[in-house]
Amino acid sequence: MQVKSSRMSQMKNIFNSSRRQKAKKVLQKSFKVFKGEGYLEFKSSTFQLQSEKSYFRIRGKTLYWYKSAKSSTAQNKLNLEEAEECHENKQNAKQFELVINEKEYRFTCTTNQEKKDWVAAIRHIIFNDGENQEEEELEDDDFEPLQLGLY
């Protein structure tokens, strides 16, 4: 009796994981996924008096900016590994600030949700610092063999 319930449990887990994978695919198609790029207005605390609108793109752990989305050469870049903090501006719902090497960069997004997406992506890079980058290696002993059959 114990063997049958164990096998039934394994079969349910397989069925449920298959359903989760299908649901995940549907959700990915339903929602716009933040790609780590887009137009932002930005201003640096050190060299700019007025905001400038540019196209920004996160690649790896670097934030690049371009004149436009079609530009192939970046105007400049910021190493996000050197960032000290990234936070939402409490006075403006569409702004966030990024501090790198004691310089403050202020970015203005089109929407509040876009701002949240940028902040989450940048914070992920800043605060993960290599954690969870490598998957834990599993040994063959970590798995219980699955035996299917009719009993």
CATH top level label of the largest domain: Mainly Beta
Q: Provide the structure class.
A: alpha+beta
Spatial order of strands in the largest sheet:
4-3-2-1-7-6-5
Radius of gyration: 23 Å
Return the string of H and E elements.
HEEEEEEEH
**CATH H-tier superfamily of the largest domain:** Pleckstrin-homology domain (PH domain)/Phosphotyrosine-binding domain (PTB)
Largest sheet: 7 strands, antiparallel
Helix content: 25-40%
Number of domains: 2
* Proportion of residues in extended strands: 25-35%
Through-space gap between termini: 11 Å
The CATH topology of the largest domain comes to PH-domain like
Describe what you observe in this structure.
By secondary structure, the protein is an alpha+beta fold. It folds into 2 domains: 2-31; 37-128, Pleckstrin-homology domain (PH domain)/Phosphotyrosine-binding domain (PTB) (PH-domain like, Roll). It has 2 helices and 7 strands. The termini are close together. Mean pLDDT is 75; it is low at 26-31 and 130-138.
